[in-house]
Amino acid sequence: MFFFFTCGTHTFTSRLKGYEHVTTQCQNCGNFTANCYKRWEWFTFCFIPIIPFSLKPYHEVGCHVCNFFQDMKYRPDVQAQGGGGQQIPMQGYGGQQGSQPQYK
Ligand SMILES: [Zn+2]
How far is the CA of 64 from the centre of ligand 1 (A)? Predict the structure, then answer.
């Protein structure tokens, strides 16, 4: 018998509940093509998800044009559009204090 032990990662991606209808502007390319996604990365062993990389799924705003993903906590404007009932105060938005990590 010969076994292959394959380790890897698997990312579960789905549309974020309550935000299915939300299409917003991508802060990277400027197109109104960004949608809200729930992403959850898991460590897999033999293609079976074993350990999640984080305790909770990431809530992200993703753009399919430039493939840019941004954590939703940086997009209070998007959160305000969702049906989650979470009202985040627009603190500091529009000020662009330059402290947002922009990964490309
Ligand atoms: Zn984009």
Answer: 7
